[in-house]
Amino acid sequence: MKANDGQTFDYLVLGSGIAGLFFALKAAEHGRVGIVTKKHRAESNTNYAQGGIAAVTSSQDSFEMHIQDTLTAGAGLCKEPVVRTIVEEGPRRISDLIELGMRFSEREIPGFPGEIELDLGKEGGHSRRRILHAKDITGREIERALLQAVSQQPRIQVMENHFAIDLITTRKLGIGSDNRCVGAYVLNVESGRVDTFAARAVVLATGGCGKVYVYTTNPDIATGDGVAMAYRAGAPVANMEFIQFHPTCLYHPKAKSFLITEAVRGEGGTLKTIEGVPFMERYHPMKSLAPRDVVARAIDNEMKRSGAEHVLLDITDKPAPFIIDRFPNVYRTCLQFGIDITKEPIPVVPAAHYQCGGVVTSVDGQTEVAGLYAIGEVACTGLHGANRLASNSLLEAVVCAHRAAIQVAGEPQLPDASALPTWRSGHATNADEMVVVAHNWDEIRRSMWDYVGIVRTQKRLQRARKRIANLLEEIQAYYWDFIVTSDLLELRNIATVAEVIVASAMARPESRGLHYTLDFPNPDPSWAQRDTVLRRAAAEPELSREPGS
Ligand code: FAD
Ligand code: SIN
Predict the structure, then answer these.
(1) Of 166, 445, 534, 549, which has the fewest beta carbons less than 10 angstroms from its beta carbon?
(2) 541 pLDDT band (50/70/90 cuts)?
(3) What distance in Å separates the CA atoms of residue 442 and residue 467, rounded to the nearest whole number?
């Protein structure tokens, strides 16, 4: 394996979703920014976001109402000052997005012909219409607008097909007394070379970990790389037991991970059993628009009770032109699978969707490791608590990216990349046993789905823990023996994240929000406001082969 002398930036951003791009645009005002992204620049969870961004922009709404809805969904675990900051700064960041070229859907104001206002959608857990959206392809429009703005900013360099392997910290290098992040080792997927990048601040914007589960709404990039890297670097990781399962993923043998946006329920779509009977009134007064944890568990229960492989989401009551105009992407995609949503209900199942926990940060994105920031889905700021309110994650990403971009300006100048040790490939040889990687990959994701899903028990968690520990051992040996590839790196990361999720779930002896266990079916007041924080012990052996190995 070849290694180079590396590159130096003021700010090194890992990931090109909404958090990474928005940060880069802001930080470029005072420094040079390098963005490494492991696939094509638009490929991200952001790109698939449908429903929109929650923010208070209507006179019918208020900050207090948005804060209250967020706290209610979060089931006692949100940090109220963080919720307040993010909600109150939301409208200003929405204006920034519009200035950067984002086009939200608009509508004519009823009773005022020719006058236009932003069209606001409604989603589960929201007491008001407050979701700004671009039809049902909000994320695609965000990526288009931000990437266009980035392309015009000479101080930002985007490097596609660059996979961040691990963070470089003073602790790993054995220098200094504090633990400071000074760069990252990055695999250039096309050349196979591992580059050394140095920066005053490294910003994790790597998104979530849906691929840890066999059924997910997330695209392939969502392998929890940021959480795994931060954990290996000694940063605390919190609340990883709170994995959000989206209630309505399209159920079709040929559909891979296609979400049916909650906005469909916001516009009147009703959840029904396969016999066509509405069932949500038996679970929550907000019926099909109850918070997501409640809806996902209700569907799970209905499927287990009846043995059905899915439930139905029915919006056929609405006029066909409205459905086609409001949900063009959902309409077209379902039609490709032979389902005309204007005429028939949509088969849906819950699927892993969002990581509410993550790397512990302040609302400015600072982690406990100096010089290391985390923003967007990879971070745990305290906004979401035990269950994220729909469409609050894009909001959190822009507010925290903006704040982090201000914060990083205060980071000290560091030596450049040539002063850092280059990657050592050790005794790696060609990987000819990719079948082992594929097998372990399937086994982890299947075990997580079967034992660490919507409904948990201590016994199932113990089973998962045992299987994942065995797999981790095997992967560690494999990692040391073979040349690194993105498949192997992702396998190593999902295994680490799976281990962290299981450990977090086992550490919480209660049910709260998205963490529901039959052994402790109720919330325990003594656990209210208590985060589950995991930190890798400094003395633990590294799954890493930087200098000295
Ligand atoms: P992402 O957008 O996921 O970007 C992560 C980036 O990091 C990608 O570019 C990826 O390639 C890169 N990356 C990852 N690992 C590495 C590595 N090792 N090296 C280099 N690069 C790496 N939220 C809402 O608020 N509203 C919605 O309507 C909404 N709808 C959603 C619909 C779907 C189908 C999904 C999956 C999620 C939805 N969410 C929604 C959640 C929201 O989209 C995400 O939480 C948010 O987009 C995350 O943004 P991010 O910038 O943190 O990460
Ligand atoms: C959706 O459109 O249903 C997804 C919204 C979200 O995850 O916030």
Answers:
(1) 549
(2) very low
(3) 12
Q: Which of 14, 25, 44, 87 to mutate to test the pocket of ligand 1 (most atoms within 8 A of CB)?
A: 44
**CA 354 – ligand 2 centroid, Å:** 9
Tell me how far the alpha carbon of residue 80 lies from the centroid of ligand 1, in angstroms.
Answer: 24
- The reply to whether 305 belongs to the active site is no
397 CA distance to ligand 2 centroid (A)? Answer: 14
Q: Write a three-state SS string for 339-367.
A: CCCCCCCEEEEEEEEEECCEEECCCCCEC
CATH topology of domain 7-242+363-418: FAD/NAD(P)-binding domain (3.50.50)
Which band of pLDDT confidence, cut at 50, 70 and 90, is reported for residue 548? Answer: very low
Question: What pLDDT, in 10s, does the model give residues 288-309?
Answer: 999 899 999 999 999 999 999 9
Pick the residue whose CA is nearest to atom 43 on ligand 1.
46
Q: Helix, strand, or coil here: 99? A: helix
Fold of 435-518: Methane Monooxygenase Hydroxylase; Chain G, domain 1 (1.20.58)
Q: Measured from the CA of 47, which atom of ligand 1 is nearest?
A: 2
Structure tokens given for 544: 């890493």
| Distances, alpha carbon 203 to alpha carbons 132, 193, 259, 267, 364, in Å | 27, 22, 28, 37, 11
Tell me the CA–centroid distance for residue 209 and ligand 1, in Å: 9
Task: For residue 1, name the pLDDT band (cuts at 50, 70, 90).
Answer: very low
How far apart CA 134 and CA 527 sit, in angstroms, is: 39
Q: Is 91 exposed, middle or buried (0-12, 13-18, 19+ CB in 10 A)?
A: middle
- Residue from 45, 70, 216, 246 to probe ligand 2 pocket by mutation (most atoms less than 8 Å from CB): 246
pTM: 0.96
Q: What pLDDT, on a 0 to 100 scale, did the predictor assign at position 4?
A: 53
Pocket of ligand 2 (CB under 6 A): 50-51, 261-263, 354, 390-391, 393
* Fold of the domain spanning 244-353: Flavocytochrome C3; Chain A, domain 1 (3.90.700)
Report the chain's mean pLDDT, rounded to a whole number: 94
Mean pLDDT of 143-164: 98
Q: Give the pLDDT mean for 474-480.
A: 82
pLDDT at 546 > cutoff 60 = no
Active-site residue, selected from the candidate residues 180, 232, 292, 326 = 292
